[in-house]
Amino acid sequence: MLSAMIKKELLLVLRDRHALLALFVMPAIFILIMSVAMKNQFSTNELEFSLYINNIENSKLSQELISKIQEDKNILLVTDKENAQFLLEIPKDYSPNTTTALKLMVKDALKSNQIEIFKSLLSKHILNIKFGMFGELGELFEVKYNNNEAIPNSTQQSVPAWIVFGMFFIIIPMSTIYINERKQNTLSRLNSMNVSILSMTLSKSIPYLAINQIQVWIMLGVGIFLVPLFDTPALEINGSIGAIIAISLALSVSAIGVSSLIAVSASSSEQATTIGGILNILLGAIGGVMVPKYIMPESMQRIADFSPMSWGLDGFLDIFLKAADASMIIKDVAMLFTFGLIALIASMIILQQRINKGL
Questions:
Q1: Number of domains the chain is built from
Q2: What share of the chain has pLDDT > 90, as a percent?
Q3: Closest CA to 260 of 173, 350, 347
Q4: How is 280-311 classified by DSSP, letter by letter?
Q5: The domain containing residue 165 runs over which residues?
């Protein structure tokens, strides 16, 4: 009986083309769009600024300054104003002994921190010229990075984020089928045949467990093989495959639990779709799917820790960035399993009560 019920559930999902689009095509498109769109924002490469210089003074000093700027690998001198982010004018009478300031115009819509970085780069060369008699200033700081602080690139952030979001989208097909069966008295007939609530729940959970696992591996494939075709870093998986299986199974249990709870609580498929869609977006927004957690304020990061999507995302990021194995993400896996099981048990209790009342 259980195998027949699972087969029936799978057939119903596979016939629903809109559900398949939401489960497989939507997250794949989001991964592509967000990985490509944010690749510069997540880039860890050195900054490069384009600069056009209008050398009115044209003295030995100004030529020396231009020569120093040309040697800077962070500044690209261009000969066309239209292609420059900054315009620098070296005015008449500019010399080490005068207080005449250089004129700097910012052309592009740059952030204030980028402008400050450029001014710092330029200041070093100006100081080297003005105080050249004391020798080169050289690098003012020796900067070292904390190796434990792992920052993802755009693909490493987008792939797990939209995997997690896509997995929770089973709320819509699962609740729709559940409610249709309730209206058609399918659940009542199963109950009259002494099919237990546990069997009904398992028959609906197992197909979506399989669908979620297929989702995960297809989306990983998109990150590894498809995203690099758009001049964007490919997804690198540094952790163990076992850890990916563990976190994806736990996420799936969590998503199925929430979906079951909404399906048995809602009175109509429209209500379930609305509640499910809003809940999915809210969990994604506070869980770091829309905006990476590490750029959120500390107060928002504490709120994000309450979202199951955040637990799943943290687990995937640890696998991709810190080469985590299953033991290193056991906390995230345990929280997701516990959350999912509690939601499933609650949904079974509600379903039993509704069947006792004649649905």
A1: 2
A2: 29
A3: 347
A4: HHHHHHHTTSSS-GGGS-HHHHHHHTT-HHHH
A5: 1-41+153-357
- Cα–Cα distance measured from residue 255 to residue 275, given in angstroms and rounded to the nearest whole number: 14
Looking at the structure, tell me whether residues 199 and 327 fall in a common domain: yes
pLDDT in tens, 151-168: 788 898 899 999 999 999
Q: In what order do the strands lie in the sheet with 86-90?
A: 75-77, 49-55, 86-90, 103-106
Beta bridge partners of 88: 53, 104
SS3 195: coil
Q: With cut-offs at 50, 70 and 90, classify the pLDDT of residue 339.
A: very high
Among the candidates 101, 131, 161, a domain finishes at: 131
User: Do 237 and 254 lie in a common domain?
Assistant: yes
Asked if the model's pLDDT at residue 216 lies above 60, the reply is yes
The reply to whether 144 falls in a domain is no
The whole-model pTM stands at: 0.74
| Distance, CA of 63 to CA of 55 (rounded, Å) | 8
Other C-beta atoms lying within 10 Å of the C-beta of residue 58: 12
In terms of domains, do 31 and 61 share one? no
Unique residue bearing structure tokens 């980028």: 114
CB neighbourhood size of 4 (10 A): 9
Let me know: does 172 contact 271? Beta carbons within 8 Å. no
Average pLDDT, the chain: 85
Residue 157 within any structural domain of the chain: yes
Provide the pLDDT for residue 235.
92
Residue 33 included in any domain:
yes
Tell whether 341 and 249 lie within a shared domain. Answer: yes
